[in-house]
Each structure stands twice: as structure tokens, then as C-alpha cells.
Amino acid sequence: MLARRIRLVTAALAGAAVSLSGVVAAGAAPAAPPAAWHVRSLHLAEAHLISRGAGVTVAVLDSRVNPHRDLRGALLPAADVAPTGTRDDAARGTQLAGLIAARGDGRTGLLGVAPEARILPVRVSGRGFDARPDSVAAGIDRAVSGGAEVILTTYTRPEITDALAAAVRRAVAADTVLIAPAGPGTPAAPTLADLPGVISVAGAGEDGKPERETVRGVRLDVAAPAERLVAPVRASLGDAYAEVSGADYAAALVAGTAALVRSKFPRLAAADVARRLEREDRRSMALGWGVVDAEAALTRPLTDLPVVPPAAARTGATPRDRQWYLDAIAVPDAQRLTRGDGVTVGLLTGTVDTTRSDLTGRVTRQVWLNDDGDEGKAPATAPRPADTAAAVLVGGSGGDGYLGVAPAAELITAAATRPEVAVRWLVDNGAEVILAADGTAPLTAAAVAYALSHDAVVVAPHSPDAPAVPGVLTVRGVRQDDALTPAASPAISAPGELNLLLGAGQVASASPDESAAALVAGVAALVRARHPEADAGTTVQRLLTTATTVDGDGSVAYGRGIVDPVGALTADVATSANPLGGPGPAQDQQSAGGPPWLIVGAAAGLLFLAGLLAVVLRRRRRRTVLAAQKGQAPLVGEVDHPPAL
Q1: Peptidase S8/S53 domain location, by residue (predicted)?
Q2: Looking at the 3D structure of the chain, how many domains does it have?
Q3: Is the preceding peptide bond at 319 cis, omega within 30 degrees of 0?
Q4: What is the pLDDT of residues 142-166, one digit of tens each?
Q5: Cα(243)–Cα(232) distance, rounded to whole angstroms?
Q6: CATH value at residue 52
Q7: Is residue 248 pLDDT above 90, yes or no?
Q8: In the predicted model, is pLDDT for residue 624 greater than 60?
């Protein structure tokens, strides 16, 4: 569990903040809180001219919330779902509620982010913040039934039960904004902030840098001030203020900002509230989409997207709840525009188990081809199964399976001992996007040239040890913990993890780079469905020019940045040739006279004959010169004979 640092402070009547070992004596004049730097950082003075959170209910799932003079009129009747007998000191619940909705005037009291919002206290834990997952699940359900439009939970343990995941899905389906601090989770053991539909919050210091105890990674959504924050607390002798630090309190500030947005835009979907909180120009592995700016969240222009039921509410359970990477780049928002209808994606590798629930009806043809391009039976040494890449691409039958990036696209697969034969078959059967799941090593220039000449986008995982093939969109996988080395130089990056699927008697796996390449191929399919007029070059241009720049000295490892599906679908991008270039003109092997061995043999024969003819002509010229010197003419019909071989 992340550490939370609390220091009790008050102010002398002159207004200077000091540390206390006690509190203000009973009957003393109310103490003013110290200056709160987060008010300036969030631009709250400007934001409050637009919205103060009126009419919005924010549920705080933590310890009990005690009365405080700065919370008068802000608290709704509390709910208690914590286990019976749980002790409670109520400190943190009160602090969180104050940061969100304190109603003081800023001089003799604390002013919260959304001072006209209402707080629904839901007690799920007590002393030591020892919440249990089932209590948090019950608290989420209680908050939804109580009419909360924003829910803040501080549960960060990597222990997600089926009941808790289901409660999150119900809240998402109810169009509730869920906010949680980022915790030390992994894909195999996610925290609540990693679940689909939850806004993950990191902490930042007054200097704008990451708070020292915050986590890193591409899974982060936004950040907020998290050091030396001033919050109300009910002490034994009366109202006081505490100086607190930690991502929990940053999440409270984000919850207050979400309340401002929901008050200003009461019909805005929860997913679009999240989009307003995110800065879209730059991404940081330590601060997500950047430190929240309340004024900007209320005023920035936002691309309109159709309102559809949230994807996180339609599908769930493992493995969907582990697909953090979809939400990391807002794939569900992109699917509000298109799901890949009418596009054919070609998978160049292995076989796919079509009996999987998430792939039922998704794969229309699978072939194994011999060197002549004829369909045959796959040999015993056929490539490994490609279920994972297929599921990331087009999975989407619902239930407990994967949600693919382009779940309405058609998938065809082809494998052969010679990849160019398989590429030709995929292209000739309508593939507009081709995923070479095994990387660029098996690809040849002729195969890529044929695909590009027939307007197909070729995507492959980055292969630093394989020779580069011009024209291929190479992809690097960014793991949840941002484990990247700056030596790599892909064209683009995307979230990726080691994925393992168990199928019918087989195991399918995909490395982080392979998973990321499948994700980018899916986004390319979305672009081609949304913009059918765009050729392959313009499609690649859309992916590269809208990729999100990543901060840090190792940014070269991300190529042009992390793929942005919504940006790729909505940005104004000029028509252009493939910015990755190409390997040259395509070679049509069949029209050239047959397979490569025959072509090579014929060429060798021609070279031999040409050399032989050169020898003959050289000897004939020499004899002519000698005859002229002797005054003799060469004999008519005299011929030269080639040397014995």
C-alpha cells in the first residue's frame, strides 16, 4: 500500500502556519488554513468563475467523514459497508472530503476544488486503511444507488476479486466517473486503477515533477498535486488542518475537478469527462497525460464522439479486466467512431483456434501454402499458434474473452515456408492491413513491395536484430511499468505485455512487441474503416503524425510516439505517400517465368553464354588482325571454336 504522510498544522492568529504537537484549545478563535499551493496549480480561481460543482454528488469510499466547519452543508447521510467491528479514526475520509468540497471562504476556512458539490461518505475501511475488496465492491454499489456521479476510492491493493471487478463494470454502465490512485499493480495482479473505465491518478510535487512515491508507466491517466496539501481534520479539541501527501489526495483533487466538469456539462458521458481531464499534446510515463488543469478541463475544445454503451460495461472478467492497454490509449473511445466494419486484416503467421469464444466468427479463412501458392496441409513444424495476436486484433464476441481493437473487422490468415507467397495470397484476398506477427526477419523486400503496390499497410513488431525492410510500420511494446531501453528505434510504439492464451490443446503467446504490433494493426484497420478513401500511405501518415510524444531522455525508444487511435481517426491529415518509403518496385514472380530457382538458373545460363560469346569474338578479332599484318585475308567460312571445357 502506498504511504500517506500527514502532519497536523494550524495557524497563529497572525496567519503563519506552524507544526503542532496538539491542537487549538477549546474556545479559541477559528484558525485559518495555511496557503494551499494546489489552488494555484489547478487554476481554481479561474475555474470557479465557470463552475463550482453545483448539483453533483461525489462519493468518497474510505474511512468515516467527520463533521468540520468547512464541510457544513456539504455532507449527505453516510453509508457504512465496512466489516463489523472495524475501528476508525476518520482522519483520511475527512481530509479527502475537504479537498473535494470544503466550503470555507479561503481566508478563515479551506476552499475545496468543487465547493458546491455534495459528499456521499461511504465507509469501507477503518484505522490503517485496511479495506477489503468485497467491502470496496459493496461501497461502489452503494455509491451508484445513492446517485453519485463521481466515485473516489483509495483502494490500491493488487487484489481484485470477481465481485469488485463486477461492481466496477456496473458503475461504468451507470455512467459514473470512477477515480483511484495508481498503485503498484502488474498485468497479472492489477489494482483497481488498472481496471477498464477507472481513471488512474499519479501524484505531482509543487515543482511539477512526480511525487516521490508515485508509480510509473503507460497505464497512468492523469496527475494532480500530491505534496504538502492542506486538508481539514477533526481533532480531539476541535477543527484543525493537516498537511498531507500522497496519490490518494491527488485522486481527491481529480475527483473534485470531475465534479466541476459534470456540473458544467451535465449531459456529458463519463468517458468524455475523462477526456476533458487529459491534456492531449504530450504524455509522460510518470504523470500520464499531465497535471490536471481545472480551467482547461472546463474550456478546452473536445472532438465530439457518438455516445455508445461503454465497452468496459459490455464485456468483463478475465482477460478483459486485464486489458489495461486498451484504456491506456482510449481504444473504447475510438470504437465509438468505428469498430472496423468492412475491413479485411491479414495475419501472416501460424494458425488460430477459431473455437475460442472471443474468436468465434472472427476468422473467415485460414490457409497453408506451398511454394507455388497452392493450398495444402500445414506440416508438423508449422509456426506456433497465433491466437493472441488474433484476439488483440479482432476479438469481440463478448463474455469472458478478449475485446479486440477492431472487433468488426474480418480476419484471414496465411502461412507458408516462403513468406512472400503468403503475403501475395493475403493481398489477393483483400487484406488492407497485414500483420507480420513474427517480425520483419521473415519478410522479404519483394513481399513488402507487392503489398505496398497493392495498397496494403504492413505492420510488424520491432526486430532490432533483423535487417530493416523499408515500408514496414515497426512497433515497440511499452509495458505497464515502462520497461524500455533507449537503444530501440521503431516507427511507433503502443502498450504491450506478454500475453498467454490457453486454447484447445495448444498454448498461444505473444511478446510485448507482438501484442503492441497487433494493437497498431487494429488501429490501422479502424482508420481504413473510418476513412475508406485513404490509401496505405495516408493511413500510415495518420498513425505517425498523431502519435503522442513521450517525455524523457529515452524517447527515441518510442519512435514517433505512442499510437493515438482517436487522433488517428479524427485529425486532419493531408494525403501523402508512405512516409516509411518502400523497398522498390514489386517483382511478379509468376509473370517472370516461375519460382526463384528457375529464374536464377536461367540467369546463370544467360551469363555463361554471354561470356562464351565474348571469348569467341575476342579470338576472331585477334585472327583478323594477324591476317592483315601478313597481307592475307581470312579464309571464307573459317570459324572459331570455343575452348574445351
Answers
A1: 53-279
A2: 2
A3: yes
A4: 999 999 999 999 999 988 998 999 9
A5: 9
A6: 3.40.50.200
A7: yes
A8: no
Distance CA 109, CA 51 (A): 20
Provide the 8-state DSSP code for 14.
T
Q: Are residues 139 and 234 in the same domain?
A: yes
512 and 435 within one domain = yes
The CA dihedral of 156, 158, 161, 163, to the nearest 10 degrees, is 20
CA distances from 568 to 94, 279, 329, 389, 522 (A): 43, 16, 11, 21, 12
The HSE-up count of residue 88 (CA atoms within 13 Å, CB side) is: 23
pLDDT digits (tens, 9 = 90+) for 61-93: 999 999 999 999 999 999 999 887 666 666 889
Question: Which residue type occupies 275?
Answer: R
As a whole number of angstroms, the distance between CA 521 and CA 184 comes to: 30
At residue 484, φ and ψ (nearest 5 deg) are -130, 150
Q: Does residue 79 sit within a domain?
A: yes
Q: Is there a contact between 447 and 472 (Cβ–Cβ < 8 Å)?
A: no
Sign of CA dihedral 32, 37, 42, 47: positive
Which of 200, 185, 204 shows the shortest CA–CA distance to 277?
A: 200
Q: Please tell me whether residues 311 and 402 are part of one structural domain.
A: no
Range of the domain at 246: 37-317
Residue type, 40: R
In 3D space, the residue among 512, 548, 326, 523 whose CA is nearest the CA of residue 435 turns out to be: 523
Residue with the three cell numbers 513444424: 381
Scored b (16 or more CB within 10 A) or e, 352-378 reads: bbbebebbeebbeebbbbeeebeeeee
258 shares its domain with 328: no
Tell me the three-class secondary structure of 492-544, residue by residue.
Answer: EEEECCCEEEECCCCEEEECHHHHHHHHHHHHHHHHHHHCCCCCHHHHHHHHH
As a whole number of angstroms, the distance between CA 100 and CA 105 comes to 14
Q: Which long-range contacts (CB under 8 A, 24 or more apart) does 504-511 make?
A: 504/353, 504/355, 504/356, 506/353, 506/385, 506/387, 507/385, 508/353, 508/384, 508/385, 508/386, 508/387, 508/388, 509/384, 509/388, 510/388, 510/389, 510/392, 510/437, 511/461, 511/477
35 vs 160, higher pLDDT: 160
Count of CB atoms situated within 10 Å of the CB of 634: 12
- What pTM value is reported for the model? 0.79
Which residues 6+ apart lie within 8 Å of 565 measured at CB? Answer: 329, 330, 331, 333, 334, 405, 523, 526
Helices 536-545, 512-530: crossing angle, 10 deg rounding:
120
| 466 belongs to a structural domain | yes
Residue partners of 566: CB distance under 8 A and separation at least 6: 303, 305, 330, 333, 334, 337
Residue type at 82 in one-letter notation: A
Q: CA-based angle 193:66:17, to the nearest 5? A: 90
User: Does 587 reside within a domain?
Assistant: no
Query: Mean pLDDT across the stretch 272-278?
Result: 92
Contact indicator for 441, 525 with CB cutoff of 8 Å = no
Query: Looking at the predicted structure, is the pLDDT value of residue 582 above 80?
Result: no
Tell me if 144 is assigned to some domain. yes
Mean pLDDT of the chain: 80
Inter-residue contact 57 to 147 (CB < 8 Å): yes
Task: Using alpha carbons, select from 100, 96, 162, 99 the residue that is nearest to residue 125.
Answer: 96
Task: For residue range 219-242, list pLDDT tens digits in order.
Answer: 788 999 999 999 998 887 788 888
Of the candidates 175, 173, 130, 110, the one whose C-alpha atom is nearest the C-alpha of residue 149 is 175
